[in-house]
Amino acid sequence: MGNDRLRVAIFSDSALPILNGVSVSIDGLVAELRNQGHSVHIFTARYPGYADPDPNTYRFRAIETPISRGYPVSYPPFYRMLQKFRRHEFDVIHTHTPFMLGMVGFRWGESHGIPVVSTYHTLYDRYAHYFKLLPYRYIRFRIAKHTNFYYNRMDHVITPSEASLKWLRRHSVHSPVTVIPTGIPSPQMLSRSEARQSLNIAPENKIMLYVGRLAIEKNLGVLLEMAAEAFAQDLNLRLWLVGDGPARGECLRMARSLGIGDRVRFVGFVPRAEVDRYYAASDLFVFSSITETQGLVVQEAMSYGLPAIAVSGGGASAAIVDGLNGFVVKNDPSDFAQVTLKVLSTDGLYARLSEQAIHSVRSQGVSQMCQDVVSVYRQVMQSKKEEADYGSYARV
């Protein structure tokens, strides 16, 4: 059984071309599962104007709502898609979101006797502020209840960090859980000088880089206030933000009000394959979010030799060993700024952090992640088989 080719169905409300931690994780996992000889079909929401390059991706009808801009929501009936699902004899279902399509994957697995694994990617109750029509505390309560309901019905749960594991236990999730950090792809062979030249970065400028959504939950106010304090002490510092989101306008206004608009660049959305050029061209990775389950972009930046400075809280700082490959700072702009300036102005310190950043993420590749996930698949398949065999024996 250990070397059998598996047939895997992936269910997720979020997938490429949506660019976030969930979609990036799925993309890397699917590619590596196929590299290792397994068959994978993806079931996700239709995205306006997007033509899938992957013939094994099935898109449910979906629509955008006022609270899900950029994230189309699938809607029933699902009978036609169920017919397509039944054409394949899947060994395991792997859901990546607990909402509409996560529930579809769970119900179809339940009704067809297929084991269901789910990855808990996100601290969902930290996003309650997007549901403006109902009280914030009520939304957080309902999300917590659904988290408990959904993940306790999984045959196995995967989560990327100890921080997110603790969050599941706080929500009284008692299903078997395995911590498997999301693997990062090998860095591209990019020349730093060529990358900087292509992005028109002056030789004397030092680039602090942020990669991620521009959203309230990313704590970007602290990042911009940190930049303002650091800029006052180093004229060559710049802050570049790669990504887009609903808080872009607010961030632009804040940069203007802080008087740093000429030294902050809002790059906007960048295709996944192009983000590496920004890592290669930058000097330091800065991350202010305290709502992450893991620091995927932190690790990606480290693979290019960027020391990382992240605000403590959540799982983003889990990849950072203080003083070895970066620093974890308090949720305070002044503390953030002083540590940033210290790293960028101390040559010996910067060189050591940069070297260790590369070294610290070498073992966190996509191949190892995939092997660990497949081990979970085989474990739940074996458990399901033993349950079926026991049921047959008990009826004799």
What's the quick description here?
The protein is an alpha/beta fold and 396 residues long. The protein contains 13 helices and 15 strands.
Write up what this structure looks like.
With 396 residues, the chain is an alpha/beta fold. The protein has 2 domains: 7-183 and 365-395, Rossmann fold, CATH 3.40.50.2000; 192-360, Rossmann fold (3-Layer(aba) Sandwich), CATH 3.40.50.2000. The protein has helices spanning 21-35, 79-86, 100-112, 136-151, 162-170, 192-198, 220-231, 248-257, 275-281, 296-302, 333-345, 347-360, 366-395, and strands spanning 7-12, 39-45, 57-60, 62-63, 73-74, 92-95, 116-119, 156-159, 177-179, 206-211, 237-242, 264-268, 284-287, 308-311, 326-329. α3 links the parallel β6 and β7 (116-119). α1 packs across α13 and α7 (220-231) packs across α11 (333-345). The model has no long low-confidence stretch (mean pLDDT 92).
Topology as a string of helices (H) and strands (E)? EHEEEEHEHEHEHEHEHEHEHEHEEHHH
Global Rg: 22 Å
Strand order of the largest sheet: 3-2-1-6-7-8-9
State the domain count. Answer: 2
CATH class categorisation of the largest domain: Alpha Beta
Distance between the termini: 27 Å
User: How many H/I helices?
Assistant: 13
Full CATH superfamily name of the largest domain: Glycogen Phosphorylase B
Main sheet, how many strands, which sense, barrel? 7 strands, parallel
From the 3D coordinates, which CATH architecture of the largest domain would you assign? 3-Layer(aba) Sandwich
Q: Bin the helical content.
A: 40-55%
Which geometry do the CA atoms define? globular
Uncertain segments? none
Q: Approximately how much beta-strand content do the residues carry?
A: 15-25%
Task: Report the structural category.
Answer: alpha/beta
| Average residue-wise pLDDT | 92
CATH topology type of the largest domain? Rossmann fold
